[in-house]
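EI: anyone free to look at a 826-residue chain?
SC: sure, send it
EI:
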Amino acid sequence: MSDTTSAEASRPRDSGDAQIRSRKPRVFGHTFWMLNSIEMFERLAYFGIRAVVPIYIMQATEPGGLHLTAQHKGWIYAWWAFVQSMLPMVTGGFADRYGYKRVLVFAISLNAIGYLMMAYLPSYAGFFTGILVLAFGTSFFKPSLQGSLAQNLTKANSSVGWGIFYWVVNIGAFAGPVVATPILGKPHSSAGWRNLFLASAAFTAVNLLLLLTFKDVPSGASKTETPWQVFVRTIRNVFDPRLVAWLLIMSCFWLMMYQLWDLHPNFIEDWVDSSMVAAHVPFEAWREYGDRGLVRVPQQILLNLNAAMIILLILPVSWLVRRMRTLSAMLIGMTVATTGILVAGLTGSGWVLLLGVVFFSLGEMLTGPKKNEYLGLIAPPGKKGLYLGYVNIPIGIGVFVGSWLAGQVYGHFGEKATLALQYLAAHPTLAARALRSADWSDSLDRLPGLLAINREHAFDLACQELGQDAESATRTLRAAYRYDGGQITNLALQHLAVDPQYAARVRESLGLAELPVGQVAAMVDQLPLALGINRVTALELAREQARADVATGESIDNSTIVEMLWDRFGADPETLNNLALEYLAQGTDRLASAVARADLTGPTSSLEKALGLGRTRSFAALAAALGADDSALERALPPLGGALATPDDRVFAFLAAQPHVRFQAVGRRDWRLDVSMLRRLIESDADALAAAHRGLEEASLIDRIGNIVRSLYSGRAATDPHVLGEALDVERLAEQHDVIQAALSMKDWTASPEQAAELLRMSSYEARAAAAAEVAASPRSATQMLWETYHPQYKVWLPFAAIGVAATIALAIFGNMARRWQDMNA
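SC: here you go
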C-alpha cells in the first residue's frame, strides 16, 4: 500500500481555503470547520434521541414508551448498527465517486425523514422502519463527511485534526442529552417523545443550510466508474487478511464498548441509586423521581459525563499521544475502557457509576480518534472515503452481535420488571397479593379465565360480594373507578369505536357486519388494535372527536370529556361487567385464591401468560405485595374528620401528599388540556394559590428581561404582558409544570380528598395498595431484594467485560506482529 505522502502529492488542489498547503500543514481552513459544524449538528440530533431512546423502546415503567421487550430492543439496535455501519463500506466508495457534498444532501434528507417517522409512527413496526431510514441516511453521511475531512488533513496534522473532529463531535453529543431532557419533560409523556423526535428532525435540517457555505472537496477518485465497479472495488479492497484481522479485533471491542450507551441506560433506570448525586447537580431540570420514590439524576445526564470529559480532554490527550504509535495508543485505551465498563456495571451507586464513566471516557479518547487516524494513514491514494467507510465495519459487526446478546442477557437476567415476575412466580402467596393490587383495566379479557367465571355474570357476582342490590352496586363501582385512568381509557376506546370516523375500520378489523354499541365494552381489549392506536392516546383522540361534534367547535378539556364518557357509557351492562371484573380481582379474594393454588413454574413468557401480569406492572405489583399490613397503614393515614369522610378519602389524601407520587401524577398530564381541573386544584387552597402566584411572578420577571433585551434591538418600547399580583392566569400556569409542582406541594390534601383522587387517577383499591407500599418504602426494599437474589450486575456485565479483555489481548498480539509490516505499521 502507498503512503499518504504520495496521495497528497497526487491530489488535485482546490483553489478555496479548504485545500491545506504543504507549506502550512497545521492550518485548518473554512471548509474544515464547516464540516465539523455539520457533524456537530448531526450528533446533536442523533444523541438527542440515542441517549434516551433505550428507555422509550423497552423500559417497562416508561409512561410514554413503546414497552417492547429487551429482545425487541436488541433486534432494533442490531439492525440499526448493521445498516448504519456496514453500508459505509460501499457508500464510502460512492462518496468518493459521486462527490461528498451531493451525497451529504441525500444523507441529511433521509435522516430528517427517519426522525419524522419515529415521531408519528409510535409502534414497533413504525419505529423500527424510522430507525432503518435514519440508519440508511447515516451510512451515507459518515463516509461522505469524514472522507471530505480527510482531504483537508495531512500526515503532519492528522492527529490534531482528528482530535479536533472528535472534540467537536462530542460538543453535539454532549448537547443532545442536555437539550433532550427539558424537551421530554418530567416524567416523559407520549407528547414529550414526539416533540423530541421532531426537534431532532429540525436540528438535522440545519445542516442543509450549512452545506451552502462551502465548495465541494475533490476526492481524487475516478469519476468514470459505474456503480457496479465501485461496489466490486469496495469488496475487493476489504479482503486484505491483515485488515480483516484488525477489523475483527475491533469488532469485539466495540461489542463491549457500545453497551455503555445502549444497555446502561436501562440498567441505570432499573438498579442505580443516584439520589446522592442528585443533591449536588446544579440544575433542577436534572432532578426527577424514579420508581423507588427517590430523587435521581436522569440517566442521560449521568452518562453525559462521557461526552463532557471528551470535550475537556480530547485535545490535550490527542496532543500528548500525537507521536505515539496508533496501535499502542489503542491498546492502552482498550484496557482502560474495559476497566471502566466493569466499574460502572458492577455497582448500584451513582458515584461509583460516574467513576466507571471516567475510566471508560479516558479509554475512548485513546481508541476512538486513533482508529480513524490508523485507517486514514494506511489508505491508498483516492481511497480515503473508502477506507474511512471500513472504519465502521467493526462497529457494525460488534454492535449487531452485542445488541442481540444484550437483548438476550438483559431480557433474561438483568431487567428488573422480568426479575420481579420471576420472583413472584417463585412465591405464589406473594404473587396472589401482588395480583390483587394490579391494574387490570387493559387485561380484562384474562380475568374470566383466572377467576373461573363467565364474563356476563361478573356484575351479578360483584353484587353478591358487595351485599348490595344492582342500583347500589352500580353506585359503589362507579365511585371506586370514577377517576381510574385505565377504566376511563376503556370508555374513550368505546367512544372512538362507535364514532362514524372509526366504526367501519373497527367492524372490518373485528370481522363484524354490524357494531352493536352495547357490545363494544365487551371487546375493549381488542379495540386499540382495531382502531390502530395506542391506549395512551385514546382519551386525547376521544376529546378531539367530541370537540368536532360540538357545533361551536369550542375547546373541551379532559375533565369535561370524562364526565361525558361516564354519562354515555357508565350505565351500559357491559361497562358494568368491566368494572365488576376489576373489582372482583382487586377487591375480593377470588383471584388471590386462584393464583395461590396455581403452578407458576416455567419461563417468564409463560409466567406472564399464566399470571396475566405483564412487565409494565410487575415491579409495582411486587412492591405493593411487600407493602405495609393494614394496621401499619392505618397508623400512617390521616385521621377521619372534616373532608375525610371515608377510608378512601384518607388514602387519596395521604398519597397526594407524597412528593414522588404527586410528581408522577402532575408530570403525566398536559395541563393545557385540563385547565378547569387545574383551576380547582389551585384556587381551592390559599397556600397553593400563593405559591402559584409566586412562581408565575418569577417567570414574569424573566419575561420582562427578555422584552427589554428585544426592545433594544427592535427600537420599540418594551411590553409587559404580565402584571404582578393580577388574577391567576391558569392558561399560562398550565405551561409551567415546575410551578404547578411547587404550588401543589403547598396544598392541604386532607381538605380536598376528591381532588386528590382525580389527580392520581387510581381506583380506590389500587390507591390502598400504593399507600401500603409507600408506608413500607417497599419499592426500595424490593429493588434491593431482587439485586441480592438475582445478581444482575454480574450476569449482565461480566460477559461483556470478558469480551473486552479478549479483544485487548488480541490487539496486543496484532500490534506486535504489525511491526514487521511496513505498510501496516502506522
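EI: Residues 547 and 553 are 6 Å apart (CA to CA).
SC: 👍
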